[in-house]
């Protein structure tokens, strides 16, 4: 049984009610005045005509009786006419009341149409398409002023986002030069013919490790800035399953060393076709596989699945492990976020892996979904718009 739900109190509903009530009040007042004036004009005088009265009493009595009968008939006629006028006025008022509500709703809808357009367009605009504008046309009224103000705000936001991305990209690029200089200085110091003290060699090795970590961090920042710059222009049709298989092959030595078991269906290798930037998508899948290998326990497992429903291509990577908190897992898509004990880790990770995955997926019109498995471990699902399998590739 369907339950009745109270309609939402929208601006259109409020304007419709306002128009209807105001019309009913004005119509009621107009009909009341018209009825008062009409009834007042139909009153008759009960006094007889001036002049000498008849001398015959019988004739006078008959005339008085006739006059009384005529006055009674006239009063009945006036009463019936008044009732008809009132009934007609009530019907007219009801009909016009319904018409006023319908017309009020139509007028309110037309008046609020620019606001609906503004709302729909604003909802479509995100950090990835701040170049879009409302561009509302029409007279220079309050609605157009509101739209122009929102356009100015979007322009300032676009400039701010662009400046931030340029700063990250430029800073990351400029920092590569001193890093390369420091690495070259270490190589020169260790390559001298004189014996290098053991403590100095150990310090040089530690510095090289830290320089490699900073270099990976800068590379991640550059990739994140590129992914957040917008939708890639150069797109190629490729398989997410093939990218995942290639990433697993690159890490085969690490997988064997940690005794990880990889579980995947035969369809994964050629599944989940999409279109996008080869470099960005390769890095995205490499980060997903790298996260599954690095943040796993020795003797653990990795499960891959690829699906394509004709609209969405999806790659799912699952790993086992301890039970995780879903709220902490959702924060992993933010830069420099790690789980629990990994927050203070200073190893190979930069804390940008899954944030790069989320940015690349968003730039291609897709999404990243992170779920803590009830049995323990993590489920990472990357969904992108599907593409047709290229000609010559077995289906």
UniProtKB/TrEMBL annotation:
Enzyme Commission identifier(s): 2.7.13.3
Annotated localization: Cell membrane
Main location: membrane
A Gene Ontology molecular function term of the record: kinase activity
Known catalytic reactions: ATP + protein L-histidine = ADP + protein N-phospho-L-histidine
InterPro entries: HAMP_dom, HATPase_C_sf, HATPase_dom, His_kinase_dom, HisK_dim/P_dom, HisK_dim/P_sf, TCS_sensor_his_kinase
Record's protein name: histidine kinase
Organism: Nonomuraea indica
């Amino acid at each position: 049984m369907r339950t009745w739900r109270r309609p939402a109190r929208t601006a259109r509903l409020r304007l419709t009610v306002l128009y209807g009530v105001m019309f009913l009040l004005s119509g009621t007042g107009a009909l009341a005045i018209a009825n008062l004036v009409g009834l007042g004009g139909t009153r008759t005088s009960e006094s007889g005509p001036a002049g000498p009265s008849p001398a015959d009493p019988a004739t006078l009595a008959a005339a008085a009786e006739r006059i009384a009968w005529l006055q009674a008939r006239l009063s009945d006629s006036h009463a019936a006419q008044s009732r008809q006028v009132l009934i007609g006025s009530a019907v007219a008022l009801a009909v016009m009341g319904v018409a006023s509500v319908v017309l009020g709703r139509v007028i309110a809808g037309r008046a609020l149409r620019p606001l609906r357009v503004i709302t729909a367009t604003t909802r479509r605009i995100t950090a990835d398409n701040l170049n879009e504008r409302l561009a509302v046309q029409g007279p220079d009224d309050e609605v157009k002023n509101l739209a122009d103000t929102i356009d100015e705000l979007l322009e300032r936001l676009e400039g701010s986002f662009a400046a931030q991305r340029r700063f990250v990209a430029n800073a990351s690029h400029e920092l590569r030069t001193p890093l390369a200089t420091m690495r070259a200085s270490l190589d020169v110091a260790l390559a001298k013919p004189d014996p290098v003290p053991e403590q100095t060699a150990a310090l040089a090795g530690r510095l090289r490790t830290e320089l490699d970590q900073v270099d990976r961090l800068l590379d991640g920042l550059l990739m994140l800035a590129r992914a957040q710059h917008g939708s890639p222009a150069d797109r190629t049709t490729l398989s997410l399953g093939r990218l995942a298989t290639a990433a697993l092959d690159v890490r085969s030595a690490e997988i064997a060393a940690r005794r990880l078991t990889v579980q995947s269906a035969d369809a994964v290798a050629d599944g989940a076709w999409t279109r996008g930037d080869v470099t960005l998508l390769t890095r995205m899948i490499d980060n997903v596989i790298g996260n599954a290998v690095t943040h796993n326990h020795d003797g653990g497992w990795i499960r891959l699945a690829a699906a394509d429903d004709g609209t969405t291509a999806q790659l799912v990577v699952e790993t086992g492990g301890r039970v995780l908190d879903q709220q902490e897992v959702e924060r992993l898509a933010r830069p420099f976020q790690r789980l629990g004990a990994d927050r203070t880790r200073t190893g190979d990770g930069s804390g940008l892996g899954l944030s790069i995955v989320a940015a690349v997926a968003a730039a291609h019109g897709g999404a990243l979904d992170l779920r803590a498995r009830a049995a323990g471990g993590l489920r990472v699902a990357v969904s992108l718009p599907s593409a047709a399998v290229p000609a010559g590739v077995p289906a």
